[in-house]
Write a structure and sequence with these properties.
This protein is mainly alpha-helical. The chain has two domains: 336 residues, no CATH class; 92 residues. It is 62% helix and 4% strand. Strand 4 and strand 5 form a beta hairpin. The relative contact order is 0.11.
């Protein structure tokens, strides 16, 4: 890269880092706190209970995830590469949410650089700079790239895979690019298996280079096998721990929502048009989508977009239910936005006044940021700060090995704050809890009649206007 490009990329990365420092020290009680708490708990247990990546555990012992009791607290979803990274940092810094969030920030900075290099290869410096800048600063992506979630690591690995694989196709004798392609494919798929949907660009690049002759290429078959084997081994291993595998079938097509009006409304109007890109960014995206592909890129970006459509189609209800499921779409959305800006800046003289085109691009980008931050700012809010205070009190006065009930509508964020394992939901009678060794209940619903009755009849260890900590026994729970 030229010196100018290096300075430009450093500038973009500096902005990317700066905007992610906004509320970087917020506790795990923000938007999607349940998923963040579960992820952080695995890392914390690696520190507290010993490192065993083949048997990850979290704090939830309840049956809410799949109907099975989980007394061993198994947590079998993605292979815990991301959790290991956080645990490695925590082994040096101590267990601290801010440092966990910074791990995701660093991962996203790497993604920003990789996106620049990838798009530069296909579309030149201008589109690369705009794509990486949008990726780095879209308010939706700024929030989610400072959360404790594995998705940003999957995104980074997919971008690294695209870049290394395309370099390998140009020099198929290079062992380095081949090895890197296999490594990044494995990381992406193990970290979040939906990465499998984003292999269409790999297939496209392969077909573009070799056409149907790719079928005869032994090295490509070896790449595919080596990329899938660790994931298949992990999935086979998981079956030995059924209590730790959350139900996932509802993410496919719950309520038969696929291709219904609500499906398109939620994904196109609410997520793309309102939350992620807003009206400004979505307009630029459409302009980038309809313009004629350039020589180098050909249909690479469209194959990437086809991966998104394939993913949305299969995990229809998952994408409607959870807005963090759209994290993998941000790079390709940023690219088409950049192409839209380029169209308005470079082409207007053929269709209308060039100054109007530049002004339109600036206005649409400003709208995207203004509306985007307005939509996302609530994601940072701590709606129930009482769970933080109550959790800290429980951590201070309860035995380190205590099993607790911290009811929060099944959200494990409250349980996480107590630094204890136990139950985020009352999924059985209190007497059954006590018989199974659960001796404490922490609640922020002090005014609830049932909680008030427990506090009256059982031993109350601490009570304020915001929370109560109760010691349970068979003698008092039935009164």
């Amino acid at each position: 890269m030229k010196k100018f490009e290096i300075i430009l990329l450093i500038f973009i990365l500096s902005i990317a880092f700066a905007v992610r420092l906004y509320k970087i020290n917020r506790p795990i009680a923000d938007w999607h706190s349940w998923r963040q708490a579960d992820t952080a708990a695995v890392s914390r247990n690696f520190i507290k209970e010993g490192f065993n990546p083949l048997i990850p555990t979290y704090d939830d012992m309840s049956s809410q995830t799949n109907g099975l009791d989980n007394p061993n607290r198994y947590r079998f979803v993605e292979f815990p590469i991301y959790n290991i990274l956080i645990a490695a940092v925590w082994s040096v810094t101590g267990i601290n949410v801010t440092y966990a969030r910074l791990v995701t920030v660093v991962i996203t900075l790497l993604s920003t650089g990789l996106l620049y290099l990838l798009v530069r290869k296909f579309s030149g410096v201008m589109v690369a700079a705009l794509s990486s800048f949008f990726f780095a600063t879209i308010p939706y992506n700024v929030f989610y790239s400072s959360t404790i979630l594995p998705a940003p690591l999957m995104v980074m690995s997919v971008l690294a895979l695209y870049l290394s694989f395309s370099n390998w196709l140009e020099n198929e004798k290079s062992f380095l690019w081949a090895a890197l392609s296999v490594i990044f494919a494995n990381v992406a798929i193990l970290v979040w298996p939906i990465a499998l949907f984003f292999m269409l660009p790999i297939i496209y690049l392969t077909f573009q280079k070799h056409e149907f002759g790719a079928i005869k290429k032994l090295n490509l078959w070896l790449f595919a096998i080596l990329s899938l084997l660790p994931f298949l081994f992990w999935r086979a291993w998981m079956t030995k721990f059924p209590a730790g595998i959350p139900s996932w079938q509802f993410l496919i097509n719950e309520g038969n929502i696929r291709f219904k009006g609500a499906f398109f409304r939620w994904l196109i109007a609410e997520r793309f048009g309102n939350l992620i890109l807003t009206v400004g960014g979505f307009s630029l995206f459409i302009l980038g989508l309809v313009r004629k592909p350039e020589t180098k890129e050909k249909f690479f970006y469209y194959s990437w977009l086809a991966s998104v459509a394939f993913y949305f189609t299969v995990f229809a209800s998952g994408n409607v239910r959870h807005d963090y499921y759209q994290i993998p779409t941000v790079p390709i959305l940023a690219i088409f936005m950049a192409l839209g800006v380029k169209f308005l800046v470079e082409k207007p003289k053929e269709y209308f006044n060039k100054y109007v085109g530049i002004l339109a691009a600036v206005v649409l980008v400003l709208f995207m940021y203004a509306f985007g931050f307005y939509e996302v700012q609530g994601h940072y809010w701590i709606n129930r700060p009482q769970i933080i205070e109550a959790g800290q009190a429980a951590d201070r006065i309860l035995p380190k090995n205590a099993t607790v009930i911290a009811p929060y509508n099944g959200d494990t964020a409250f349980l996480y704050q107590t630094n204890r394992h136990g139950y985020p939901v009352v999924d059985r009678s209190l007497s059954d809890f006590v018989k199974n060794g659960t001796d404490y209940l922490v609640s922020v619903d002090v005014a609830d009649a049932g909680i008030a009755n427990l506090a009256k009849n059982c031993r109350t260890l601490e009570k304020t206007s915001d929370y109560v900590i109760i010691q349970l026994s068979l003698d008092c729970v039935g009164k």
